Here is the input.
Amino acid sequence: MSLLRHLMADMAIDIPQELIGTLAQARRVAVLTGAGISAESGIPTFRDALTGLWANYDPQALATPEGFARDPKLVWEWYAARRASIAGVQPNPGHAALAALERHFDKFTLVTQNIDSLHQRAGSREVVELHGNITRVKCSREEILVSHFPDDESPPRCSCGAYLRPDVVWFGEMLPAEALARAEEAAEHCEVFFSIGTSAQVYPAAELPLRALSAGATVVEINPERTALTRHARFALQGAAGSVLPQLLAKLATASA
Ligand code: BV8
Here is the structure.
């Protein structure tokens, strides 16, 4: 994270009282998170993920069916390296604050683009994974999940002979229909929609806050930097999720006391 981001991460962010008032009245809240909320856990954001060995590859070339067909060993090992680095990290105060925020609302739907399970590990109960989960592996032909596989081949093969692959959504692949439907329903029926730690560049996830806006929701962005969504947001809290969310939770708890 840049020095500026570090400095911003520690600054007390001004959270408008109007936002707290809106949240105190809200019954249904939806949240979309991206790689930025896991950055403070030490997981590089998607476009930074190519550190070290991966510095010479385009993530959007690796995270595609064509990339896997072209070089299954390289793609499998990229995900194995990311899976190993994720296994060693912990949820951060941003994940924890979202898990605590759930209790303040009748309906709280957490939609994530992340594949790292950190929201679930932080205690969030209703997590909608739009892009799958790196800890799950499936057959590339039968699409069934496989929990045990030999590690003598890279990628390993399913008993049917086809390669195994990570259970994530690659560029050019459809999102899981049920997850997308739940995310769209939450966006269309919430009073407040948070977009947290996402550059808002990947579709159809990036459409969700705009769908909420069209349905009359108050859109709140939490990000140290401006994004394509910032100009549409009613509140743009320019700071790190791990710093802003605990402050927001504390103010809401006081207002609700
Ligand atoms: C689909 C899993 C139908 C794999 C991922 C042309 C125009 C529009 C769309 C398209 C197009 N051509 C193709 C498309 C569709 C394409 C797309 O959107 N492309 C983009 C690049 C233009 N989408 C798809 O293919 C999707 N499928 O649409 O199917 C279809 C089919 C064919 C053709 C057309 C349509 C599937 C998309 C899912 C891809 N899989 N992940 C893996 O991880 O390996 S995407 C992956 O990248 C993530 O899941 C995430 O979605 C995205 C990265 O975005 P972010 O999470 O936002 O991360 P990023 O690094 O960008 O930003 C981090 C942010 O955090 C920054 O803003 C930073 O400032 C902030 N931050 C940093 N620190 C902090 C912080 N914020 C808060 N606190 C901090 N501490």
Observations:
- The chain has a mean pLDDT of 93.
- The longest strand covers residues 132-139.
- The pocket of BV8 is lined by residues 34-37, 39-40, 45-47, 63, 113, 115, 131, 168-175, 197-199, 201-205, 222-225, 227, 240-242 (CB under 6 Å).
